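Task: fold both queries, return tokens.
Query 1:
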Amino acid sequence: MPYTPTDYNPYDFANRRHIGPSPAEMADMLEAVGCPSLEALIDETVPPSIRQEQPLPWAPLSEGGLLARMRAVAEKNTVMTSLIGQGYYGTITPPAIQRNILENPAWYTAYTPYQPEIAQGRLEALLNFQTMVADLTGLPVANASLLDEATAAAEAMVMAHRVAKSRATGFFVDANCHPQTIAVIQTRAAPLGIAVIVAQPEDLDPSAVFGAIFQYPGTYGHVRDFTDAIAALHAARAVAVVATDLLALCMVKEPGAMGADIAVGSAQRFGVPMGYGGPHAAFLSCADAHKRQMPGRLVGVSVDSRGNKAYRLALQTREQHIRREKATSNVCTAQALLAVMASMYAVFHGPAGLRAIAERVHFMTERLARALKAAGARVEPAAFFDTITVEVGVGQAGILAAARHEGLNFRKIGRDRVGIALDETTDETVLVSVLRAFGIDGVPPHRAQLGFPQAMARESAYLTHPIFHMNRAESEMMRYMRRLSDRDLALDRAMIPLGSCTMKLNAAAEMMPITWPEFSSLHPFCPPDQAQGYAEVIADLSAKLCEITGYDAMSMQPNSGAQGEYAGLMTILAYHRARGDAQRKVCLIPMSAHGTNPASAQMAGMEVVVVQSAPNGDIDVEDFRDKATAAGDRLAACMITYPSTHGVFEETVREVCRITHDQGGQVYIDGANMNAMVGLVKPGEIGGDVSHLNLHKTFAIPHGGGGPGMGPIGVKAHLAPHLPGHPETGGTEGPVSAAPYGSASILLISWAYVLMMGGPGLTQATRVAILNANYIAARLRGAYKVLFMGNKGRVAHECILDTRPFAEAGVTVEDIAKRLIDNGFHAPTMSWPVAGTLMVEPTESETKAEIDRFVTALLAIRAEIDAVETGEIRAEDSPLRHAPHTVEDLVADWDRAYSREQGCFPPGSFRVDKYWPPVGRVDNVWGDRNLFCVCPPLTDYSRAAE
């Protein structure tokens, strides 16, 4: 009998590694769904009228092939010692932090901590970050990070506008701010009617502005005391913002001591690689009086059901989803993973270590300035921390070339100066090379001599909390990071079935290249010929994303989905202005839209008109038509999500697009649900003019516990000339992010994903995502009502379970969400887009076994609800109300109306590897009434327990 070789391909990444169910399991699932084939299911789910005609063409790479390709591309980048500064610096990532945080799926696969009971580890790390920022800036409250320094500055401007008592309409910007910061502020100010005044600090007229921002130290190195300028602003009832540097603040007077109201900056140089622009954690701190106006997330201290200390997100968490166009910001993500890294850097080094690093950098700079002055060079400023500017006249090109010959990048300033910014990685060898570029041999000896006045030296203590004084032996650090990660439930433990968030596999092979020096060590403003590898990545990823979406051009600049929305709307408005249609400001947004949609439109200066939903959740087309017609030549755009936020492919999408175009408007299709479209539907072919893509959802960038993200926008050809520009790369429009390509280093992850999946694999992933969602809906039929379905009874990639009827028996959607923790699961999206419901998205990466475990858990919970409904047990006495159950519950005296077994080991939970939440149900109201957002003293821990 002839030998028959196997047709199994172990290197088929898409079908063997990324997609969870096997072919045999898919057959069983299709039987449960009631469909003869996967293609038949897709035909019943996705309207034929919108299906793309041509398949995605490129062939897949194996993991080995991908890494070889990545190595070849990495070698096209040239790693130089970049002393450009301008907000980006070389840093040393402690290997313990790189291995245990950045490269650890327990940290990078976690979701945003909206369920605090299963996020206590990263919430503590983020509270450490807030404490670090508050201490160093000298202001009492800091948020849990923002996207980058430039956008943090823009958020601070808008925050100042809200809190200032001055009626002035101007905002003063120190000309010594980083150029990208000035440009982003100008972009954000224009649609809001804020007049930006860029000038030297001595030219400030406090009566003409509601606020001002100063750079400290300045982009050219200046260390100035802004105390008097801030006092003058306060006398005029205006608000003072200081953009600052955390390492410098270990030595120089802090903004709080100058009287600043708000401080912003980047924590990048606290152990986070430059990565050609990001991701990095920005920060914003403020006076206590303004804390309720802060943008972004805020971690606070509360108590759990036993009175024990517990952390949670406080105050304005996801407030834009509630307040919509009245939201103060559209920020719905942050840079949690990078904020955790920066906080661990501070824990690792402690205040003494940080001061030592700061002193080393500063004294190196002082030696450099001394040597240059001794050689006759004109060096500015007189007071500096780590950055100096050297006047070189007509020799600028020669100096820059000599520096590159030495393996160095200086900053080109104007036509006759160069800037040099030293950093943690600067050693004696670098110092010698810098001077050699100027034709100077040797360096002067070290002296503990300040390069700024003694009066500017910091006098206050910082990082006094015990967490920053722990034993810094690597064994202790490693155990601390492990303890925190063990308190969390991330994707490496269990399925996270969040609707609209697409918690899919973040494959190890996709993640590996981001820490290679050829990618991680590049400065975002290095000469383009040193970043040819990045150029290839960005060009090829852009081309493939255009192929996937049906658009003609991509901007990789937005570094979050919400920022992508904003960038897309600003592109539309620029297009209208260029055509002489500046009056087009109306934006039609369905009630079902993501809350960031109306918030982004408001930020863009648009007038939001809400469109009603039909009873089945679809857009009410007649209401849409009426409002589009009423807007007429004032219609700028509509914003729709497709498939809809309710998890359905609406049949009327082409008609909605046609109505908008007939009135001269543009169609913005929110890409949040692109995971149901890749390979099946191209938004640019069904009427879309612009879409943002959540690369941290559909394209496999991990969520990192609440960031990083990337939200590039695709546009049709007529909009391409109006995409965001940047001071470093040109363009007619202003930038929306600090770096030209946003958080460029994580683009590698999405590029690796599309290369290993190939066109057919991406399409199959979409099909299986739809199968998994329909399988859950079918398995739960009869136990839970699925709220919205398409015309043929199918859902898209997510389904909404209606839990509102259980409220009559006293069981809330929160009870169900917390009970799922006992089963070892993160809850689905709770109470959005419909209050009192759960939106479930399994993604294509989950295996049938894990989905079945989830279904088992939900059915067991339904049985517990039945017991409440039939009067067997009261809701307040049931395991639903007491959930989640902790080890403390297990070992304490048991006087509950159900058994320990039922409470702690419900169906679906693992017995050997059971996840135990570290705290019981967190009291949200207590936390907001007793707001505390920095590390509490140890005595408070015991008081909370009492």
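Query 1 returned. Query 2:
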Amino acid sequence: MQERIRKLHHNRIFALVFWLIVVFAAIITLPNVSTIIQYDGQPQLANTSQPVKATQIKNTWGRNLNGTYTVNAVYNNPDGKLTTKQLSAIDKSVTELQKRSTYYGVKKVTTMTNTPTARPQLFSKDQSTEVVQLEVSHNQGTVRQITDQLSSQISTIGLNTYVTSPEIVSDAANEHIASYTLIVILMTLLIALVAMGILFASIIAPIITFLAILISYISTLSLATNLAYHWNFAYSEFTPIFLLMGISLFTLLTSFWFFRDLRNHVDDGEESQVATTDVVQNLGYRILISTLTLTLAFGSLMLFDFSTIRAFGLLGIGFAITGIASVTLIPVFTGMLGNSLFWPKKTRPALKDHKLWHSLARFGLWQPWIAILAVLYLAGPFAYGYRNQLSYNNSQDIPNNQAVQGARVLSAHFGQGKATPVTLYLQTNKRLDNQNQLFQLDNLTKKLQAQPGVASVTSVTQPGGQPITQYYVSNQLSTLNEDLTGVVGQLGTVRNDLKSDSSNLRQKDLNKEVKRLQSLTSKTNGLVSDSSTLQTSLQSALSRSNASGSSSASKKVTSYIAQLNAVNTELNSALSTLTTLSTGVNTSNTDATTAHSNLSNYADTLKAVNDSLKSSRKQVVSMQKTLNKMYTYLGGLQTSEAAKALYLTPTQLASGDFQQSMANFTNQNVKSTYLTITLKQEPNAKNTAETLDQLRQVATSQLRGTVLAGSTLTFSGQPVTMATIQNQYQHDLPRVLLLVFGITLLLLIIFSRSLLQASYWFLTFLASTLASYQLTHLIMKWLTGDGDFNWQVPLLAFVPLTVLAVVELTQLALSYRLNDAPLLDWLLPGIHEVGQTMRHSLFIIIAGVLGLLAAESQTLTAVTLITIFTAIIFNLALPLMASSFGKLSVIIPAQKPHQFRRQRRADRPTKKDKESK
């Protein structure tokens, strides 16, 4: 039993079983990588950052909007203006969407129909594009699912429709990265197989390398994704790619070292297990140093707060696992296979002397200053011309995505910043539904609108991004001036009427009328007296006529009586008429007397009225002059800056339009509001961060000393997120470079036991890196028209470049340390010896990153070019600089004492000088 265990241990079967258990556990516990990229791929901002604070405010907004995000449904007519029929079709589509709002998780729909004041923000000036804003719940489903559902729902015949928002664009970017991650992994593994096959002319050796890469990668990836899934550890959308990049390169290099030394031992006749043990002992120190350097360098990134940088710290774990696999897993197969590992070409090919490094080192030793100047002349301009030109736009690589196309349509028809607005949240402990608070909010709105780089600002007082004229003093003064003009005119008319009435009401004329009325009264009195006399006479005659009719008389008398009867009848009729007349005259006499009395009283009253009219006329004249002065003052006030202030009357505050605006822009308790700021440029503009800083300073200073002083101001939106990432990244990137390169340099100094030589080598590497960055920038600008790198390019390129520096410089450092000869004696043979394997390292580095080109991504293409150029430049510059600085570091200190002695000897007085004195 012990013998079996010893054989199993001798054949490293326990190591194989261990790795099989590890990889099996890694596979069954590996979460869905695409899902992790979707949810955790974007940078995780600190809880104290502005976007996170804004999200917290939005999640407690009330009005059924908690936990929602804004989605733009874009309707565009590519042929020109939207027709009436098309607008009706859009309304019908929106109506159908509202009917199924619960199914889609839509909490609110804002259109130019239900919110007319927001029309300028929802309908383009060229009238070809309409936007419908939707508030969608996060709990309804994934962003991708909601986008697909809404895209099918808003589809309208004859129109291009899009569903877009910053969240949807970010998710599309993650989806695109996840889609090519598997392709990159497969291509990288395939190229690794081909590269090892070319190097060793073997089929088995590449397969062993492939298994080592695969086991190390799956183990590290499973650990990284589980940390992100279960413990919310930092994760980047490029985590699977940069883990593969680092692990594959390091495994390829260590496998190459292992297989090369193993072939030498096997060809010398050693048994496979013994040869494997010797190789492990010989290479163990170099692999240990390289593993330790890479593990410490990248593991230190876990100390940073920025999640994307902290995610790269997982590489430290990956390199540790890879280093362990290199000395435990690969020996399992080499011990079992032995020389069969190099089938079908088992014989060792004749080694060819690689003279490039030897020639370059000889030139550096021959003319060190010329060699240094030549390197500086060729690489210096590129290194000196390096500029940190980074893009923070995550949609740069997304091909033909409807969300990105929708964002571009918004930018084309509404302005570049329309698709990614900035939201300023304002929280206070006072209600915002009164004139004092609204006045300050409107002043803040106008102040922000006046800032450079700002296209428009919408707020509760300006929901359409433009002032509503009836809410401002200037408009109200205009109406008041019009009314005042009418009043002044009416006062002029009154003044003229008073003058006319005063002239018409003359007392002399009234006295004449009174006298005429008195004469009329006298005449009527006489008439009454005469009528009374006539009445008496008529009655007497009537009595006499009746008496005469009763005696016997002659015919004449009879005739007279007949005539007298006729007269009597007429007199009776006249008497009746006269009686009526007498009654009328008496009445007229009474009325005339009353009228006379009234007119007498009126004459006295009229005198007082006339005096009062004169006084009123003077007051009207004075009032007219005062109103004219007031009109002049208000006219000047109307054209002044003071008239541009907001003043909401109680009627306007209670109006339906303003209450709709309050519902759109304030929270449930009316103590929080937001302003939407549209920038003139897209978020990736280089001055976006400066613009946001300016807006923050302006908003803070504008509220200082007002009723809203002390309010909490919080900015959010895609530009703010990008600016936050930019600030954190620019703050941490120099520290990352200093820390990683510092650890690498420190370990090189320790391993080589030389401060100067290790520093010269490392400075050569840095200069090569800077030159490659600038050269790649020029090529990318020529190829794509946009030379700005994605902001993650430096970090991604950082992985293969650090592996390149550690592997090559560690080998040079160990060669220098293990050599007992003086520096000048070591330079040429030592550099030549290291150069024999550098060509293979260069080939492996270039082959290891070519798989990134399969993604057709500008980001990964830039990483590939930077790595290739750095490897080439560094392998050409290192032998020159190492030999040149090595020689100068010896001969310059050696020359100084001789020069000093010669100078003292020249300054010392001669014997002849002494004698002359």
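Both queries returned. Flag for query 2: The CA atoms of residues 250 and 803 lie 7 Å apart.
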